[in-house]
Design brief:
With about 300 residues, the protein is α/β, with parallel strands linked by helices. The protein folds into two domains: about 35-60 and about 75-250, P-loop containing nucleotide triphosphate hydrolases (Rossmann fold); about 265-300, no CATH class. The protein contains nine helices and 13 strands. It has helices at about 45-55, 75-85, 95-100, 105-115, 120-135, 150-160, 180-195, 260-265, 290-300; strands spanning about 5-15, 20-30, 35-40, 60-65, 70, 90, 165-170, 200-205, 215-220, 225-235, 240-250, 270-275, 280-285. The strands form three sheets. It has a seven-stranded mixed sheet with strand order 6-7-8-3-9-10-11, sandwiched between helices. It has a four-stranded antiparallel sheet with strand order 2-1-4-5, with helices on one face.
C-alpha cells in the first residue's frame, strides 16, 4: 500500500494580540490508501487544526504535508479550490453546517455535482447510489429539518462523497448525536470505506470511535503520541477474535510520548532511566536515594 496522507514535522502557530499559541508542534502522521483511521485527542490537542490543514482550509506554519500527491504548503488558489472540490470530502461536527436547510436531501447531494460539472444524464443515478449506500434513500425528498441528527449526518456523508473524493475527512461527526445515532453514523463511515475503498480520517475526542476503526492515533500537545492497531486473529479452535495492540510513536529525532496512565502509575517525573538490552530498551522511573544510601554518601565524603 502507498501513503495517501503524509505529514512530517508539521507546525501551526496562531498569533493573537502578541500571544503565540503552537497548536501543532512537529506532528508526524502517515495514512495509507484505503485506511479507516481515527485521530483522538482532548480539546486543545491540535486534532482539529490538523484536519483543517488536511482539508485545505488552513495552511501550516512549517513542516511538510501531502495528500493524494498535493503539496498543501505550495498549492496556489486554483489548485486549492480544485483540491477541496474533488480530492477531499469534509463533514463538520455541526449537522446544520453540512446541509442547506431549504434543499431536500437529494438536492443537497445534487449541488456539488452541478458545481463540478458532473454529466447531467448521470446525476440522478449518482444521487440514488449515494443515498442508498448511506441507508437514507427513502428520505431523499425531506429537508434537513425533517431529519434526525443521525440522518442529517449520513446525508452529509453522501454530499461529501458526491464527487468521488480520494479522502473523506470528518471533524467530530458524532459530537452532537446520541449513542444510537452515533453508532449508525460510524457504521456508515465503515461501510463507505469497505464498499468504495475511500480513505477515511475521523477526528474526535470520543474514545468509543476506536471500536469502529482499525487504527487509532492519539494526539497530545500537538504531536502524535500513541497508536492502537486492531486486527482479526484466529485461535487454535478456529474462532476469530479481535486483537488490539498499543504502540508508542517514535518521531524522526527519536522522541516518544509515554501514555499518561503509565506515567501516573509509575510516578515518573522530570527524568527517567533508560536501559539498552540486547533486543529492547527499558524505561524506568528514577527513585530518590534511600536514607541509608544518603548517610553512606555523607560518610564517604567525610
Amino acid at each position: 500500500m502507498t501513503a495517501i496522507i503524509e505529514c512530517h514535522e508539521l507546525v501551526r502557530i496562531f498569533s493573537s494580540t502578541g500571544v503565540e499559541v503552537q497548536a501543532l508542534q512537529g506532528l508526524d502522521l502517515t495514512v495509507e490508501t484505503g485506511e479507516l483511521t481515527a485521530v483522538i485527542g482532548a480539546s486543545g490537542s491540535g486534532k482539529s487544526t490538523l484536519l483543517t490543514i488536511l482539508s485545505g482550509l488552513d495552511i501550516p506554519s512549517a513542516g511538510r504535508a501531502r495528500v493524494a500527491g498535493h503539496d498543501l504548503l505550495a498549492m496556489g488558489g486554483r489548485e486549492r479550490l480544485s483540491y477541496r472540490r474533488n480530492t477531499v470530502g469534509f463533514i463538520w461536527q455541526q449537522t446544520t453546517r453540512n446541509l442547506l436547510p431549504y434543499l431536500t436531501a437529494a438536492e443537497n447531494v445534487l449541488l456539488p455535482l452541478v458545481m463540478a460539472g458532473y454529466p447531467r444524464a448521470k446525476r440522478g443515478a449518482r444521487i440514488t447510489e449515494l443515498l442508498e449506500l448511506l441507508n437514507v434513500g427513502e428520505l431523499r425528498d425531506r429537508v434537513p429539518g425533517q431529519l434526525s441528527g443521525g440522518q442529517q449526518q449520513r446525508v452529509a456523508v453522501a454530499v461529501a462523497l458526491a464527487n468521488s473524493p480520494e479522502v473523506l475527512l470528518a471533524d467530530e461527526p458524532t459530537g452532537e448525536l446520541d449513542e444510537a445515532n452515533s453508532e449508525m453514523v460510524l457504521e456508515a463511515f465503515r461501510g463507505v470505506n469497505e464498499t468504495l475503498g475511500t480513505t477515511v480520517l475521523i477526528v474526535t475526542h470520543d474514545a468509543g470511535v476506536s471500536d469502529h476503526v482499525r487504527r487509532t492515533v492519539q494526539i497530545r500537545d500537538g504531536r502524535t503520541s500513541t497508536e492502537v492497531l486492531r486486527r482479526t486473529s484466529t485461535d487454535h479452535t478456529g474462532r476469530e477474535h479481535e486483537v488490539a495492540e498499543e504502540f508508542a510513536v517514535l518521531d524522526r529525532v527519536g522522541r516518544l510520548q509515554l501514555p499518561q496512565d503509565y506515567i501516573t502509575q509509575l510516578a515518573m517525573r522530570d527524568r527517567v532511566r533508560l536501559g539498552l538490552e540486547e533486543d529492547h530498551v527499558t524505561v524506568s522511573p528514577v527513585r530518590p536515594p534511600a536514607d541509608d544510601e544518603t548517610a553512606l554518601d555523607g560518610k564517604e565524603q567525610g
